[in-house]
Design brief:
Belongs to the flagella basal body rod proteins family. Helix content is about 45%, strand content about 20%. It has about 140 residues and is of the alpha+beta class. It has one domain. It starts with a helix and ends with a helix.
């Protein structure tokens, strides 16, 4: 496999990983206020995503792969909301362990990584096109 094709494969794996990361972040943000349905019930638990590099024997490149999507085991913050359906006897409600600022920063980083991989693909495609043009007989 040539270097340009290997580059495309590596960048494509990065696109897939960052796309999955954006999906997880979006789900966390969408559920940032999702409390339990009954008194004392647990609210939405933040999802986390783990990646690993995997050697692609065909190209010799390291591809990024989603290893697992897990749940953040951090404690739930509590808020005093005595009239809420999920309030315990003391009037406290367990809130999701989602920090919107962290999720927004993670989304920005994932978006930039996605864009960088997209640029690599565009550049590799341009180089492949230029190579093909150079191989054409000149008239």
């Amino acid at each position: 496999m040539d270097a340009l094709t290997a580059t495309l494969k590596v960048a494509a794996s990065g696109l897939g990983a960052q796309s999955e990361r954006l999906r997880v972040v979006s789900e966390n943000l969408a559920n940032a206020q999702s409390t339990g349905q009954a008194p004392g019930a647990d609210p939405y638990r933040r999802k986390t995503i783990s990646f690993a590099a995997e050697l692609d024997r065909a190209s010799g490149g390291s591809l990024v792969e989603v290893v697992k999507i897990d749940r953040d085991q951090a404690d739930f913050p509590v808020e005093f909301m005595p009239g809420h359906e999920a309030a315990d006897d003391g009037g406290y409600v367990k809130m999701p362990n989602v920090n919107v600022m962290i999720e927004m920063a993670d989304m920005t980083e994932a978006n930039r990584s996605y864009e960088a991989n997209l640029q690599v693909i565009k550049q590799a495609r341009q180089l492949i096109s230029l190579t093909i043009d150079l191989m054409r007989p000149q008239s």
